[in-house]
Amino acid sequence: MRKISIIIVLAFFLTECSTVPITGRKRLNFVKDSQVLPASFAQYKGFLEKNKLSEDKKMTAQIKDVGAKVSAAVDRFMRANNMQTEADSYKWEFNLVEDKTINAWCLPGGKVVFYTGIMPICANEDGVAAVMGHEVAHAFAKHGQERMSSGQLQQLGGIAVALGTSGKSEDAQKIWNTAYGLGSGVGMLAFSRTHETEADKLGLVFMIMAGYNGEEAAEVWVRMSEKAKGKKAPPQILSTHPSNETRIETLRAYLPEAKKLAKLYNEQSNHTGK
């Protein structure tokens, strides 16, 4: 029975593994867009109905304008790289919500929200583009779908552990189940950090493709770090996000490569006329 469980897990992994464009990372995704996007769009609509949109017309216009330019860069990339069906599935929307929380997020399918609290950290239009690129990149790389797939696989792994230890003593079963729970929990945190780093890199490429200054991406995290001074952060291994310092280093190191890729992809989309 234990061998059968392992075979099932491996079968899921091998048959549902695809590649994230640009970064080349292998991802596990067996949740189809048709299962996710209707719920995502409904959730976004419900959120907007329950939360107050910003009345600052200038900031709101900036969010919508930057969002349109960055998402257009993503769309050009997809259509120039035989991803027309995926490009058509995105329903990009950008809104600024009145909330002091320093945050922004993007649901699958391209539904983006910025909170007014993050605007001082963005500081300027290039800063907005950096955050926008990061959030749009989550949707582009299908991180939401991948997290759902991983959650289901984690449940399947728990079943496999239970089946594999069914013949052992009750104490042994508890030890194995606890070990799996702790191990898979830390593993999921590392998985989330991988997504954040990938979104940082992809977002940097997309913001540069859209005509913005990529150097500002790291500066956003410099300002975020300054804002967080005096606040004790959890060890990176127990966090869903890389540390601010790690993100600054990653963005600065990746900037030359991002510039090359942005230039290449813009030339590619111009050449194909897409």
UniProtKB/TrEMBL annotation:
<keyword id="KW-0378">Hydrolase</keyword>
<keyword id="KW-0862">Zinc</keyword>
<dbReference type="InterPro" id="IPR051156">
    <property type="entry name" value="Mito/Outer_Membr_Metalloprot"/>
</dbReference>
<comment type="similarity">
    <text>Belongs to the peptidase M48 family.</text>
</comment>
<keyword id="KW-0479">Metal-binding</keyword>
<keyword id="KW-0645">Protease</keyword>
<keyword id="KW-0482">Metalloprotease</keyword>
<feature type="domain" description="Peptidase M48">
    <location>
        <begin position="69"/>
        <end position="253"/>
    </location>
</feature>
<protein>
    <submittedName>
        <fullName>M48 family metallopeptidase</fullName>
    </submittedName>
</protein>
<dbReference type="InterPro" id="IPR001915">
    <property type="entry name" value="Peptidase_M48"/>
</dbReference>
<dbReference type="Pfam" id="PF01435">
    <property type="entry name" value="Peptidase_M48"/>
</dbReference>
